[in-house]
Design brief:
With about 60 residues, the protein is an all-alpha fold. It has 3 helices and no strands.
Length: about 60
């Protein structure tokens, strides 16, 4: 493995971690899950998804 490819791999891993941590791909994950486990069922729009997610976070008890 060259230094350049090692740096590229490290960058990709950090990017993957940050996007998952921040929830950037949450809607895409939701859509993939819905299509795989509930084919033919309606899928929320991205706006509906985020509104529901934020509403759920506001009502669920949080620790610490």
């Amino acid at each position: 493995m060259t230094v350049t490819s090692a740096i590229g791999t490290a960058f990709k891993n950090v990017r993957w971690y940050v996007t998952n941590l921040m929830g950037d791909n949450a809607y895409a994950t939701y859509v993939a899950h819905q299509q795989a486990t509930h084919p033919g069922q309606p899928v929320m729009t991205e706006r509906e998804f985020w509104q529901k997610r934020y509403a759920d976070q506001a009502t669920e008890p949080r620790c610490c």
